[in-house]
UniProtKB/TrEMBL annotation:
UniProt keyword list: Aminotransferase, Pyridoxal phosphate, Transferase
Protein name: Aminotransferase class I/classII large domain-containing protein
GO molecular function, one term: kynurenine-oxoglutarate transaminase activity
Residues forming coiled coils: none
GO cellular component, one term: cytoplasm
Length: 380
């Protein structure tokens, strides 16, 4: 393996899902729904395939999808953007992140992340030859430590990567926090990369896009995807929204990473994004009911549960059960209890952090969530 990837192992999500299958455990680890996406979106994909929309798509996106993304963005943020010049369709948000980093960050540039962070950020920054500075968000509220953030800035700092709602903690960045980060970006001429894939799963407060804050659109790459909002994580349709001077970098990287994204799924994604607002309301209602089952269940089992405002994840302190650390706890949970969770220490630069915490997902049908809670009540 090349040096730039030497330190990375098989992703924790892959490891845990394999163990779930091997031990017949209930998988509350990797974040993918065990129910299907909406019929009208699947029908649109089948239609597109039958209509012969099967050759390479335009590199930066099928025109209807670029337009649908721009319309959705305007509804969400009030910002009117040019779908031809400011939207790039990618193979999932993971590719959008890679394209933004590889297209806009030079080797030696420093990028600030908030730990715990989604695993692809670190690996992609490493591939780009960037340096990583991680600022740890600590329980119970995972607030941004502003002083530490300011102290982490150097002449080499080029960007701050923000994920809100935040995987794995469920934290949502408050307007105050985003305002401070925005003024830091403006004062130090930094870019903001924002991963907002859980924006439609915001339960306790309204989601705020960094790009919508004064002075920020021009320095922000906003990234999102279809997977979480439409329960179609396997379709891998994502996008990056940025002003033309940043879109140029994103598109140059995208052209040589994947060139274009799966054509029929892009047509179906365009249909999906035209869903009525009631679709989003129902999605939220369904997820709030699931969240209630899992959170109340985990409390009854005896975990200390940290409040999650968004995403389909919740983080708990496992130490009442006396295992050595998060990895040991998760192994015990799989083998002795038959439930899979995700150890969080892999989401920190310093692996000594996060050892008290594990993440559960509630993107599963209610019976599955109830059975997992039952197993834990009986065997933990
Ligand atoms: N985003 C998903 C999660 O956090 C996992 C995606 C993946 O497996 N790479 O669970």
């Amino acid at each position: 393996v090349a040096k730039r990837l030497e330190k990375f192992k098989t992703t924790i999500f892959t490891q845990m899902s394999q163990l779930a299958i091997k031990h017949g455990a209930i998988n509350l680890g990797q974040g993918f729904p065990n129910f299907d996406g909406p019929e009208f979106v699947k029908a649109a994909a089948i239609q597109a395939i039958n209509d012969g929309k099967n050759q390479y798509a335009r590199g930066y996106g099928v025109p209807d999808l670029n337009s649908a993304i721009a319309e959705r963005f305007e509804k969400d943020t009030g910002l009117s953007i040019n779908p031809e010049k400011e939207v790039t369709v990618t193979s999932g948000c993971t590719e959008a992140i890679a394209a933004a980093i590889l297209g806009l960050i030079n080797p030696g540039d420093e990028v600030i992340l908030f730990a715990p962070f989604y695993d692809s950020y670190e690996a992609t920054l490493s591939m780009a030859g960037a340096k990583i500075k991680a600022i740890t968000l600590k329980p119970p509220d995972f607030a941004v430590p502003i002083k530490e953030l300011k102290a982490a800035l150097t002449k080499q700092t080029r960007a701050i990567l923000i994920n809100t709602p935040h995987n794995p903690t469920g934290k949502m960045f408050s307007r105050e926090e985003l305002n401070v980060i925005a003024s830091i970006c403006i004062e130090n001429d930094l870019l903001a990369f924002t991963d907002e894939v859980y924006d439609k799963l915001a339960f306790e407060m309204d989601h705020i896009s960094m790009a919508s804050l004064p002075g920020m659109y021009d320095r922000t790459v906003t990234m999102n995807s279809l997977g979480k909002t439409f329960s179609l994580t396997g379709w891998k349709i994502g996008w990056a929204i940025a002003p033309p001077h940043l879109t140029w970098g994103v598109r140059q990287a995208h052209s040589f990473l994947t060139f274009a994204t799966c054509t029929p799924m892009q047509w179906a994604a365009a249909a999906a994004l035209k869903a009525p607002e009631s679709y989003y309301e129902e999605l939220k209602r369904d997820y709030m009911a699931k969240k209630e089952i899992l959170v109340e269940g985990l409390k009854a089992v005896g975990f200390k549960v940290f409040p999650s405002s968004g995403t389909y994840f919740v983080v708990v302190d496992h130490t009442p059960f006396g295992r050595k650390d998060d990895v040991d706890f998760c192994e015990y949970l799989i083998k002795q209890v038959g439930v899979v969770a995700i150890p969080t220490s892999v989401f920190y630069l310093n692996p000594e952090e996060g050892k008290n915490l594990v993440r559960f997902t509630f993107c599963k049908d209610e019976d599955t969530l109830k059975s997992a809670v039952e197993r834990m009540k009986q065997k933990l």
